[in-house]
């Protein structure tokens, strides 16, 4: 079995930055340290940070004192205001690319555009982005969500940073027929595009693909979808132990990629488990 690993699998710039900021807080901050929601969408990393005294909370009411770290996906404008009003120390670990999307939405709103955010409306990043617009803003997962949209004079478009370029292009093409004026900011993170393209190329070369990352990670789920279109034998795992459930019999080449919130130690552990699986099979053949 040959194991091929995508070059850019794992942490992106924004995630590395957020984790570094959290680790610095754990060393320097006094009192309790919170993150408003998980700092990144990887349960294993969140659990490791808990050992350093950093607690992920869901409700603003749970914040009493100490330090609040704003997660990499960002929060809504109202949530940010409430946190700041509490008088606690705020460490803003929002990914700079997500922050830029907030700024573009504010700009488009000021200029009078109807704003479309291409992304999952229930994802925390998208909820945050929507909060920086006015009344005429909506999130769409795909062009299907726009079938009943009336013609508008001016439409402005941004995207969730982990969207696929193909989905953004499809929405843009549809909106060209619906507006007299269209303004587009391609806010898909370059790290996302690179990972998706690498995974596409890798999926073409292998007998099966393994995508590592949190099941609550949008970019990991999207990598899985993209790879599965090319290689039906694509498996999404969160931890290496899940390899035991997979049937990799006959796979001569196995491809590995990982979401932008997957730590390198999880990728390395998965590779080690695959090598061990391979070694065990060879030993079984010798015994036969």
What is the CATH H-level superfamily of the largest domain? 4-hydroxy-3-methylbut-2-enyl diphosphate reductase, catalytic domain
CATH architecture of the largest domain: 3-Layer(aba) Sandwich
Largest sheet: 4 strands, parallel
Radius of gyration: 21 Å
Number of helices: 9
**Amino-to-carboxy terminus distance:** 19 Å
- Order of SSEs, N→C? EHEHEEHEHEHEEHEHEHEEH
Number of strands: 12
Average pLDDT confidence is: 92
What characteristic shape results from the CA principal axes?
flat
The CATH topology assignment of the largest domain is Cobalt-precorrin-4 Transmethylase, domain 1
Q: Numbering strands along the chain, what is their spatial order in the largest sheet?
A: 1-12-10-11
Brief descriptors of the model:
288 residues; alpha/beta; Cobalt-precorrin-4 Transmethylase, domain 1; 4-stranded parallel sheet; 12 strands
TL;DR of this structure?
The chain is 41% helix and 20% strand.
What does this structure look like?
This protein is of the alpha/beta class and 288 residues long. The protein folds into 3 domains: 2-10 and 191-287, 4-hydroxy-3-methylbut-2-enyl diphosphate reductase, catalytic domain (Cobalt-precorrin-4 Transmethylase, domain 1, 3-Layer(aba) Sandwich); 13-94, Rossmann fold, CATH 3.40.50; 97-188, Cobalt-precorrin-4 Transmethylase, domain 1, CATH 3.40.1010.20. Helices cover 41% and strands 20% of the residues. Helix 7 packs parallel to helix 8. The protein is flat and about 60 Å long. The two termini are 19 Å apart. 41% of the residues are buried. Mean pLDDT is 92; it is low at 282-288.
């Amino acid at each position: 079995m040959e194991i091929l690993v995508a070059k850019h699998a794992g942490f992106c710039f924004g995630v590395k930055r957020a984790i570094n900021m959290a680790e610095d807080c754990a060393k320097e901050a006094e009192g309790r340290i919170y993150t408003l929601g998980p700092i990144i969408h990887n349960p294993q990393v969140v659990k490791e940070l808990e050992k350093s005294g950093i607690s992920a909370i869901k409700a603003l009411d749970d914040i009493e004192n100490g330090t609040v770290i704003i997660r990499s996906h960002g929060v809504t404008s109202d949530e940010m205001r409430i946190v700041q009003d509490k008088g606690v120390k705020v460490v803003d670990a929002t990914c700079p690319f997500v922050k830029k999307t907030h700024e573009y939405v504010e700009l488009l709103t000021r200029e009078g555009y109807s704003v479309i955010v291409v992304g999952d409306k229930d994802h925390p990043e998208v909820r945050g982005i929507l909060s920086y617009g006015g009344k005429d803003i909506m999130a769409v997962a795909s062009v299907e969500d726009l079938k009943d949209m009336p013609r508008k004079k001016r439409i402005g478009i941004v995207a969730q940073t982990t969207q696929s370029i193909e989905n953004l292009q499809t929405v843009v093409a549809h909106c060209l027929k619906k507006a007299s004026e269209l303004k587009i900011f391609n806010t898909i993170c370059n790290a996302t595009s690179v990972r998706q393209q690498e995974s596409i190329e890798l999926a073409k070369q292998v007998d099966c693909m393994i995508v590592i990352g949190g099941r609550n990670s949008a970019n990991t789920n999207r990598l899985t979808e993209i790879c599965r279109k090319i290689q039906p034998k694509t498996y999404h795992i969160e931890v290496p132990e899940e390899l035991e459930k997979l049937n990799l019999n006959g796979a001569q080449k196995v491809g590995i990629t990982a979401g932008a919130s997957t730590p390198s130690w999880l990728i390395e552990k998965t590779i080690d488990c695959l090598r061990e699986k391979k070694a065990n099979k060879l030993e079984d053949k010798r015994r036969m």
